[in-house]
Specification:
about 250 residues; alpha/beta; Beta Polymerase, domain 2; 3 domains; seven-stranded mixed β-sheet; two-stranded antiparallel ribbon; 11 strands
């Protein structure tokens, strides 16, 4: 798998990104390439010019990564103790991502065990697996960002090789979010419905017909906060719903 050519990018940014990757390798911090770079490598879609590089790493390696980049003269910050740190060089930066903003999609060994190999910035790298990209992108439903189209193009790119069992395990309690993404895929690309793993759609639809797990002992839960940090605030503060993240 390939990604956009380094020649298409600012040479200063290329040098910065390469040095970060080399520095983390020297510090024995395994990372996977994610974000726009991995999306382009998986799908072949180009034109996503970004001012950052998304690196995914295990939570236990974050402090080592931040220290290694600080020692090499880069400004660093623990942007959120829940999911992300950063390293900067002027206007360019690298995201060090170890979970998701909703705390659901934490990086673990399986990310690395299933990572395909690719080349980014002329370096051999591991890429975030398509299943884990679908998992994390499926929960991005803010007013100004909705990644369903990305999920659909990742399903297309997998070309029938998606691991349905791993997807189900990843979504777990939040399997309805996966069902929504599959329904949207069926709508947008009806002739490609067979690319969804055999039995996954019917299994999810069967689960959806069972409403016995919807109630929570009379508590009005709102799971919308896993999808958007802002759009369900009123339901929690004024509507009497309980934030499912804290339930």
């Amino acid at each position: 798998m390939g990604a956009r050519r380094s020649a298409d990018l600012d040479p200063r940014a290329v040098a910065f990104y390469r040095h970060v990757l080399e520095s983390l390798a020297e510090a024995d911090v395994p990372v996977l390439i994610g974000g726009a770079w991995a999306f382009e490598a998986h799908t072949g879609s180009s034109g996503r010019r970004t001012k950052d590089l998304d690196l995914f790493l295990r939570p236990g390696h974050v402090e080592t990564a931040v220290a290694a980049l600080s020692e090499r003269g880069y400004q660093t910050e623990m942007t959120s103790p829940v999911w992300i740190a950063k390293a900067f060089m002027d206007d360019d930066y690298v995201d060090l991502i170890f979970s998701s903003g909703n705390s659901l999609c934490t990086v673990d060994d399986a990310w690395f065990d299933n990572a395909p190999r690719g080349e980014v910035l002329g370096l051999p790298v591991g890429l975030v697996p398509i299943e884990e990209m679908i998992w994390s992108k499926a929960f991005l439903a803010e007013r100004d960002r909705f990644d369903a189209a990305d999920v659909q193009h990742l399903i297309l790119a997998a070309n029938g090789r998606l691991d349905g069992d791993r997807l189900l395990a990843r979504f777990g309690l939040h399997w309805r979010v996966l069902l929504v993404q599959i329904v949207l895929f069926d709508y947008c690309f009806p002739s490609k419905r067979d690319l969804v793993p055999t039995g996954l759609r019917s299994r999810l639809l069967e689960q959806a017909s069972d409403l016995t797990d919807v109630s929570a002992d009379g508590v009005d839960l709102c799971y919308g906060t896993f999808l958007s940090r802002h759009q369900y605030e009123g339901d929690i503060s004024e509507g009497g719903f309980v934030d499912a993240r804290h339930a």
